[in-house]
Specification:
Layout (H helix, E strand, L loop, with lengths): L7 E5 L4 H12 L3 E6 L2 H14 L3 E5 L5 H14 L5 E4 L15 H29 L2 E6 L12 H20 L5 E7 L6 H7 L8 H12 L7 H11 L10 E3 L5 H10 L2
Parallel strand pairs: 1-2, 1-4, 2-3, 4-5, 5-6, 6-7
Helix pairs in contact: 1-2, 1-8, 3-4, 4-5, 8-9
Length: 266
Amino acid sequence: MGALSGRVAWVTGGGRGIGRAAVLALARVGAHVAVSARTRGEVDEVAAEARKLYGPAESVTCDVSDWSQVVKTVGQIESQLGPIDILINNAGVLGPLARMWESPPHEWARAIEINLIGAYHCARAVLPGMIERRRGSIVNISSGAADFAGPNWTAYAVSKAGLDHLTRNLAVDLGGTGVRVNSLHPGIVETAMVRALRTATPEQLPEYRRRFFEDLTANGEVAAPEAPAIVIAWLASDATRDLNGAVLNARDDPSLAEKARAALNL
């Protein structure tokens, strides 16, 4: 029996990268997983892989910035797998890489809509049921950008700082309900976002910032998505039942992965 045996988990932005790895990690420890993204192709493949390796998994399409789609998606997941016990708010975009006053306003706003408002939508949709059942865990996938003032990525950084503070404030509201929420900074991970930063043009990022990501890769300091995925599964499990409102940083605290593996018997 896995640590999440029979529990239903929903992973947004689950078609690739950290999301895909989180789906497989959750399924590996027994969760029945729904994986969503805005387009169908990749999530179908991830759900099929999870089913083949571990157990029940379903794919759905959902734009988390659209409240009506989120509500519909929750209904689909619950009809297919059962009530949602775990939400992994992973859907995110890098947003425009540009100085704020030169950024396209619709792209800047779109990053906030997906990265921050999308997480609110998904939590808002699942929380009434979680609270009624007095059981649930939400893990918000944030970023070190929330704490770092860097050039040319105001939308992404602001959205992640907002997500961390949403985590802290929501945790206060959830006190005594049996439901908890935590935030994870996964570190520098080999994803499409990091690849975009490594190949950014001088107009998108100053050369020294692009080289920072290049050097991390060359030095073997870019983690595989599977590393934070284990921590995500741990945060979703009863092993962290007393953790609520925490903002954890996997890059600053490598022991998190060790704790997660030990707790999940992996």
